[in-house]
Amino acid sequence: MSTVSTSAVRTIRHVIGGRETAGESSRTAPVWNPATGEHQADVLLAEPGDVDAAVRAARTALADWADTSLMRRSRLMFAFRNLVEKNLDDLARIVSVEHGKVLDDARGELVRGLEVIDFACGIPQLLKGEYSDQVSSGVDLFSFRQPLGVCAGITPFNFPAMVPLWMHPIAIATGNTFVLKPSERDPSASNLIAELYAEAGLPDGVFNVVHGDKAAVDAILDHPDIAAVSFVGSTPIARYVHERATAGGKRVQALGGAKNHAVVLPDADLDQAADHLVAAGYGSAGQRCMAISVAVAVGAAADPLVELVREKARAIKVGPGLDAGSEMGPVVSPDALARITGYIGSGVAAGADLVVDGREPDVKGDGFFVGPTLFDRVTPEMDVYRDEIFGPVVAVVRVGSLEEAIDLINGNDLANGTAIFTSSGHAARLFQRSVQVGMIGVNVPIPVPMAFYSFGGWKDSLFGAHHIHGPEGVAFYTRAKAVTSRWPDDKPEDAKRGPDLRFPTAV
C-alpha cells in the first residue's frame, strides 16, 4: 500500500478509471509537512480536461454499476470496510503527516468514517420501498428509489479521510458513480482509499479522484453530466457552490462554516465542562467545523470557568502529530498560521482579555505551530467572535442568563452546532427547543450525530435541502418513483367498456 515519505518530494496524481494518471495537469501545489515545515510533495492540479476524463470514466461505468444487485453492492462495501479497518494505521499516519493532527485524532476521524461505511453496508434495507395492495379495484401501488447518475464531492482539508467517507460510500452503495476532489493540502489519503476500493473489487470508473484548485471545482460545478454535488467547506464557498451548481440543474448539498457556542450554567460540573471545552476547542488545533470556539459563561460560572480552562489549556502538550507525547499538533499551512495569529492580534487590539497567548508555543523546529489561546470578556462586535477562525482560539463571552445566551446564539448567522452544560433538565430542554441550530449537545461538547442519523446545520451553515450521510444522505443520492399498476382480467367484457374520461379516483 501507499505510504507517505518525508525524505523526498513526490508527485501525487489523479486516479481516473482505476489508474493513476497525470492527465493534462502541468500545474502543481505544494503539500507541506506541517510539523516540520518541509515541502514533502507536489500535487497535480486538474485542468477542466482532467475533470472531464474522470466524468467520462464515471459515466461509462454507470449503467453496469447501477444495474448491479443490491446484495453485490452490499458485499463489496463490506469488503471495502474491512480493508479500511485493516489499513487504518497507514491512513492515520498519512493524515497526520499531511494535516498535522496527532495520530489518535487521525484514527478517530477514520473510525467515524468507518461508521458511515457500516451504514452503507445495509443498503438493501435502506433502499426498501413501500407497497400497497388493492388501493383501488384491481390497482396496486408501490415505490422504489433509483440512483441519480454521476455524483461529485468537494471536500476540505480538516478531515481528509472522514468527510469524503461521509459522501462516496453512500453514493456508490445506492448505485451512483463518483468523482472526488479532495483538498489539495492533504490529498494522499484519497488515493489510498481509491486503492482499497479497487482491492475490494469495485469496477474501474465507479470511484475517481481528481486533485485541484478552483479550476477543478468550477469544472465540476459546470459539467453537464454531473447530477449532484456534495460540498463541505467555508460558508462563502458553500454559497458559491450551491448557486453555481443549482444554476446548472444539479442537486446540491453544501455544508458551510460554523461558530459553535457552548453555554455553561453555574449549576454545571465546571471542572468537567472545562475539560470538554478544552478538548472541543483545541483538539485538532481547532481545525474542526464542530469545534467549540465560543464559551458562553452564564453569571457566576464565568470566573471559575475561565480559571479552569486557563490551567488546562496551558497544560496541553503541543508538538508533532507523530510524537507519542503530543496532544495537539500544528495547523495545516503557513497561511493558516499567519491567519490565526493575525486574529489573536486583532482580539488584543479590540480590547479582549488575552488569558492564554498561543502565538509562540515552546516547540522546536520550523513547523506551523500555534498553541492554545484563550480570550475572556469578548463582545459580539469583535472579529474573534464574529469570524470563523479555524484555529485553537476559544473566546469567552459573559452573559447574565440562559435566555441571554440563547439570544446570542440565535443572533449568529452560522448555526452548525451548539452545546449546553448544566445539571438542570428544565434548562437543557428549554435550550434544545429554543436554539436555532442544527446539532445540539447536552453535556456533550461536539454533538456530531452517529452515521445512522444525518449531519448538518441551519441558516448559513447549510445550503440545500439535505443534510449529509444517514437517511438524508440516501435520499440525496437517489430519487423516488411511484408505480400504480392494474392487471385487469382478460375477459371480453373488459375490452368493451370504452374510455372513461372522469378524473380517476379510488373505487
Mean pLDDT: 95
Ranges with pLDDT <50 over ≥5 residues? 1-6
Distance between the amino and carboxyl termini: 63 Å
DSSP helix fraction: 25-40%
Q: What structural class should be given to the helix and strand makeup?
A: alpha/beta
Strand order of the largest sheet: 15-16-17-14-13-19-20
Count of beta strands: 23
Instruction: State the shape.
Output: globular
Radius of gyration: 25 Å
Fraction in beta strands? 15-25%
- Biggest sheet overview: 7 strands, mixed
Instruction: State the helix count.
Output: 17
In short:
With 507 residues, this protein is of the alpha/beta class. It has helices at residues 48-66, 70-86, 88-99, 103-121, 123-126, 162-173, 188-200, 214-222, 235-247, 270-282, 302-314, 334-350, 383-386, 402-410, 425-434, 470-476, 492-495, and strands at residues 10-12, 14-16, 19-21, 28-33, 38-44, 131-136, 139-147, 150-154, 177-181, 207-209, 226-232, 251-255, 260-264, 292-298, 353-356, 373-376, 393-399, 414-415, 417-421, 439-442, 458-459, 462-463, 478-486.
